[in-house]
Fold these 3 entries.
Entry 1:
Amino acid sequence: MKKIMSVCMLLTLFTSIHAQSGRIRISFAGFDCYRETWDDILHSDGKGDEVFFTFNFTLADRNGNSKLNYEKRTPVYGDATGPFSNRISAGSWTDIFGNNRGGIKAGDTYRCNDIIGEYDMADGDILTIIPTGWEHDPIADNSLAFSSTIRGLYNSINQKVAPVMIGFNILTGNLGGVVFNAASLGLSKVKAGGDQGELGRAGTRPIGMEKYGDFTPKLVVLNTPNLNTICNSDMGFGKGVISVNYDEVAVGNSRDHGNYSILLKVEFIPKQNTAPAPPVNTGNNTPPPPPPAATNMNNTGGFKKMNAPVTTVAGTVVGTWRGTYGNGQSNSPNFYSFRLNADGTMQLLDANNGIIANGTYSFTNNQLNGTYKYTNGGQFSVAATLSAGSLNGTWGSGSNASGGGKWVMSKAGVSATGNIR
C-alpha cells in the first residue's frame, strides 16, 4: 500500500511540475493602501491619494529569447468629485463637512477584475510582469520616461530571469518566490522620480521610490511548470491572486511614506493534448482526413482572433453577413452583422463595418457555431442553420449559444436599425 501511495504521489508531483503549453490570462484585481503618500495640505489635486497603475509584460522562451512585449496603463483612481470627474472613484476620504466621499487613505482597498493581458505560452515559456503604482499629479508625468526605460530593459530582463527559472519549483511552498526585486537579479535601479528628490515638488512618481528618486521595480515571473499550482493556490487574496507590495519606509523614504500592494490574478488554461482519431476504414485504402489546424492566437494583450478549422461548401458562409437580432423569441429589430473569414475567424461589425468584437466559428453540414468577445471582456456565443441563403440562429451569454434571443442574417444584407449588442 505504501508503495502504491508513493507512486501516486510521484505521478501527482510530475503532473504538477511538468511544463505544458496553454493560454494565460492576467487580470488587475485591485489594490490595498496601507499608508498614503505625502500630499500638500490643501489637497489641490484632490483629497488624499490619487493613483494609477502600469503593467509591463515581456514574454520569452525558456532560453530568455524575447517573443513579445506589451504595456497597459489604468485610469486614475481616487477623488472623482468636482473637477476630477474623469477619475474612477476610490477611497474613503471626505471633506471637512463629511461629504464628497473619495480620495485614498490608509486602510482603503479597491477590488476589480480587469483583464490586462492574455497570451499563448509554449512549453517552458516565461512571462514577466512589472507592476508599478504611481502617485498622480497633473503635471510632470515621470511615468512616461520610466516606461521608455523599461522597454529598453526587456531583453536584459528576459536574459536574467531565464536561468533563475530553470528547475524552479513552486511546490516547495515558496509561493512568494514568483515576485523578484529587480536588484536581486542584477538589474540597475531606475531614476523614476524626476525632480522629486526635494519635498514639495509636484509630479507623478512611482510608489516605492527612494528618498532621492531612485526606484527598484518588482518583477512577477511566471513559467509554465508552475502555473497550475499558482492558479490553484490561495495566497491570502483568493486563488491565483498574487500581491506585490511597495513600501517606501522600508527603502528609507519616511518622507513620502507610501505603502501599497498591487493585486494580480493569474488564470491558465492548459492546451489539451488529445490523441488523433483512428483511421476510417473506407474499404478502398482512402487515407483519413487531416487533423484540424492548430490554434494560433495573436498575442498583444486581451482577446485576439484565433485560427480554427472551418468546413465550407465553395465558401458558402465566407463573407459579410448583415441582419438583425432580438431578445427572447424575437429576431429583430437590432442591427447585427458578422464577417466570417476563410481561416475560421470572425468579427462582429457595427453598422459602419467597424470591428467591435473578435472570435472564431465553425461551419459543418449547414450548421454554424461561433463565439466572439468584446475588448471589455464580454463574451457571447451563436448557433445557426443555413437555409435558402439565410442564417437563422440563436445567441446567448458566455459559451451558451441560446437563451438570449434569436437572429437572422443574409449575405445580401438586411436593412435594420437599432442598438448593437
Entry 2:
Amino acid sequence: MARRWLTLCLLLPLAACDPATATVVIVGSSAASLAHTDKTVPDHIATWVTGEDCSLLRYTEEDGPYCQTEAETAPTATQVVCYRTLGAIDCYDAPDPKASSFMEVR
C-alpha cells in the first residue's frame, strides 16, 4: 500500500508543468475511460489505492457508495427458465413468450 501512495505522489508533479495541458489530458482520458470502463481515471486510481471497487458513476446515478468491496459488487444470480425440447433441456435468462406452459421445467 505504501508503494502505491509513493508512486502516486511521484506522478502528481508531472501534471503541474502546464496546467492547461494537464487539464485537457485528464479530462480527455477520463472521458475515454468512462466510455469504455464506466470509470473515470480518478476512479481507477482510487480502486488501485484502496483495493476496492470505486465508481463515480455508481455514486451519482445509483446513489450507492463510492467504494465497495468485491463481495458487494458480485453479480447476483439471475432467474433461469428451462424448457423441454426435442432430446434436450434448453435454459434461458428470460421466459420464452412462444413456449407453452407444459414444456417448462421446474
Entry 3:
Amino acid sequence: MRIAVIGTGYVGLVSGVCLSDFGHEVVCVDRDPRKVEMLSRGEVPIYEPGLESLMARNVAAGRLSFTQDLAAAVRGAGAVFIAVGTPTRRGDGHADLTYVMAAAEEIGRALGGYTVVVTKSTVPVGTNRRVAEVLRAAAPGADFDVASNPEFLREGAAIDDFMRPDRVVIGVESARARAVMAEIYRPLYLRDFPIVFTGLESAEMIKYAANAFLATKITFINEIAALCERVGADVKDVAKGMGLDGRIGNKFLHAGPGYGGSCFPKDTRALARIGQEHGLPMRIVETVIEVNEAIKRRMIDKVLDLCGGTVNGKAVAVLGVTFKPNTDDMREASSLTIVPALVGGGARVRVVDPQGRREGEALLPGVSWLSDPYAAAEGAEAVVILTEWNEFRALDLRRLAAAMKVPRLADLRNIYNPADAAAAGFAAYTSVGRG
C-alpha cells in the first residue's frame, strides 16, 4: 500500500521507517527543507538505536522516500498518517492541536480517491471528529474515513516496540477503514500480536489513560522511596516485593529523580485538562503532576545535603542529562530542574552524557561538557548520576573516588550498592529510597 506520513519527528520518522519495512511504499513529509535534505542523504536527526540502518535499507529498496510536497505524497495514498507534534499549550495545559489541524486542512485539499486519514499524534478525546470536520470543509466531496492509531513507542526501544508491540490500538467507524488498517498492520496480525479495534474516542482515551497510569506508578514508587528513607527501608527491596505480585508487575517501579520525556509530562497535563473541561477533575493525575515536580526539587536538596548544605564554589560532575538512556531527548528531563539549581547555587558543573550535548548545550547554559566521567570527576567535590546510561553502570568506583577532591556520590538512579561505594573510598553516598 502507498502510505504518506506527515511529520518526521520522533513518532513520524520511526513509524514511517517501520511501515516501509513491512513492505509498504512510504513517503514521509516535512516542511523543513533542511530536514528533508538530511533524511534524503541518509542522516537521522534524532538518536534512536537501529533507526539509521533500517532507514537506509528501506530507502535502498525503494520503499521509503522524503519530500516537502504534501500534495504529491497524499495523491494516490491509501492511508495518510498525521504524526505532527502536540506540545502543551501555554497557559492552560491542554495539547496544542495547531499542527494537527493545519495538516488535516492541507491533506483535505490534496485528497483524491478513497483515503483513510490516520491520527498518529497523541490528541485529546474528540480530536479525530474535529479532524474529520476540517477535512470535510477543505474537501466537501472527498471520499475518506478518519482513524485513530495512537503510538506506544518508548524512546530508545522504539523500533522493537513498533515491530513487536504489546498491542496495536485502532479506532475506526467503518468496515472499509477497518479493512485498510488491517492491511497496513497485517505483518503483525500474522505473527499474533494483539490488534485492538475500537471507536475513535476509546482509542484516544487509551493512549492518555495508559501514559497517566505509568506516570502514576513511577510517582508512587518515588513517594514510597521518600518514606523508605525516613523509616530505614530499602526501596529496591520494596519494589521487588511489590513487582512480584502479578497484579502490579515490576515495570516502572524504579525510584529516581522523577519522570520526564516527550509523553508523560504533556499527556498527564492534557488528561487533567480534559477532566476539568468535562467537570470531572482527575484528582490522582493532578496529584501525580504536583508530586513529580516536588520529587525533582527533593533531588536538589539531596545533593546539597551531600555537599554539606552548599555547592557554592564546588566542582560537581553530573553523569547523564537526557530524560532516560538511549535517547538524545531532553524534554522535561529532571536535569533541567536539577542542573540549573546547582549552577545557580554557585557550583562549577561538568556534564557527561553520550547523546545529550546536542540539545543540552542550549538548555543548560553555564556548564562544561566532557566526554569522560573520570575527567569530569577530577578535583570534584561531588558526582551526581542522573541518567542510567550503560557507560555509568560499571564505573571503577575506586578510580572515580581517587580522582575527586572530596569523594561524594549522589546515585540518583540507585545503580550502585552503598557498601561498595564506601569500600571504594567514597566518604559520603546518597541514593533514592534507601535509608
